[in-house]
Amino acid sequence: MRLIQVTVSKGWRGHEQKIIYLYEAFKEYGYVNEQWIICPEDSQTFKVATQKGMNVIPLNSKSEYDLKYAKQFSRIAKELNADLVFIHNSQAHTLMVFSSLIFGLKLPLVLCRTLIKRVDTNFFRKWKYNYSGIKKIICVSYPVVNILKYAVKDHSKLCVVGSVTDLKKFKKTQKTGFLHKQYAIPSTYKIIGNIAAFSGFKDHVTWVNTVAELVKRGIKAKYILVGEGPLETQIKNQISDLGLENEIIMTGFRNDIPEILPEFDLFLFTSNNEPTGGVLLESYACKIPIVAANAGGIPEVVIDNETGLLAEVGNPISFADKVEQMLSDENLQQKCTVNGRNYLIENFTKEVIAKKMINELNEVLQKNKRI
C-alpha cells in the first residue's frame, strides 16, 4: 500500500499525535510500501514529522473550500502514485471531497473521526459524510459511531478502532519529585493533575469546583492544570473567584508530558463528552490512578473499580468522593494501576492499534482496486 495521511490542522492534540504514531507503526511493522503525511507547513504535525525524518509534504489551504488546494492535492497524489487517502480532520474531509469530485482524485478516501458531535446540522455536512468516495469512516469509540448514525446512511461504512499510545514514549513510572521542587510543593502533599486543552467539553469548570470541594474537606494536595486553549482566561477567573489561586497551579502548554505525568498521585479527568481520552491511556502507561467522568467513550477506556473510578458527569461532589476513595485506599490504587497498564497493553498500544487500522485500510483497498 502507498498511503497518504492528510490533515489541515495546525494544532497539536491527540489526533495529530495519532498521525505520527500510525506512521511510525506502519513503517516499523512493514504494513505499507510507502507513505506520506500532507499537512500545513506551519503546523505542529509538519514540525514533528520533519524532526523525525518522515516523508512529509507541506500543503497550505486558505480555507475549507480552497479549490486550489484541492487541485494541488489531486496532482500530488497522482505524482506519488498513491493507493489510498486517510483523512484526519473535518476541513481536510471537505477538501478531499472537492479534490475527488472536481479534480479527478480517483483514490478511495477513508475518514478517521474522533469527535462526538452531530454532523447532520446542515445539508452540505450531511452530504459530504455520504459522499460515494468516502469508503469507510473509522471511529475512535462507539459513541462516535452512534452520533454519526444520524447522518451516515450506510452504517456498514462505520467501524471502531480505538486510541493509541506509545509505551516507549511513556517509560517513566517512578516519581522523582521534580514537580514538587519546581512549584515548591511540600513533600507531604499529593499532586492531583489534569492535562487537557481548555475547551468546553473538557469541563474544567467541574474540575475547579471539585478542587474547591476537596480543599473544603482538608485534602493535603496541590492541583495542577497543564494545557492552553480558548477558555483559559475563564478558568483563571473562576479560580480567582473561588479563592483557589494558592491551590491550583496552571502550567500552560508543556512538551514534557512523559516527565510530568508520573509525578501525579492521581489523574482527575472531568471531560463530559470525551471520545476516549488518550491521556487516560498515558496515565495507565505511567501507573497513575485515575478518576474520570462516566461520559462519552471514557467507559470504553476506564473500567469502573477495575482500572480506575468513574464519577457522575458534572458533579463535583461525586468527583470529590471518588478522589477521596482512591487516595485513601492503597490496595485500590495498586489494583487499578496494574489492571490499567495491562488493559493498555492488550488493547491500545501502537502494535495493536496499527494492526487493526491497517486491516481496515486494506479492506477498503481490496474492495476498491484500480483496474
Describe the overall structure:
This protein has 371 residues and is α/β, with parallel strands linked by helices. 41% of the residues lie in helices and 16% in strands. It has 14 helices and 13 strands. The chain has helices at residues 14-28, 44-51, 67-80, 90-103, 123-129, 142-148, 178-182, 204-216, 232-241, 257-260, 278-285, 316-327, 330-347, 350-367, and strands at residues 2-6, 34-39, 56-58, 84-87, 109-113, 134-139, 158-160, 190-195, 221-226, 248-252, 266-269, 290-293, 309-311. The chain has a 7-stranded parallel sheet, sandwiched between helices. Helix 1 (14-28) crosses helix 14. The radius of gyration is 21 Å and the shape is elongated.
By oligomeric state, this entry counts as single chain
Q: Give the integer mean of the pLDDT values.
A: 95
Portion of residues within helices:
40-55%
H/E element order: EHEHEHEHEHEHEHEHEHEHEHEEHHH
Q: Termini separation (Å)? A: 15 Å
Q: Give a quick account of the main beta sheet: strands, pairing sense, barrel closure.
A: 7 strands, parallel
Alpha carbon gyration radius: 21 Å
> In total, how many beta strands?
13
- The low-confidence runs, each spanning 5 or more residues with pLDDT under 50, are none
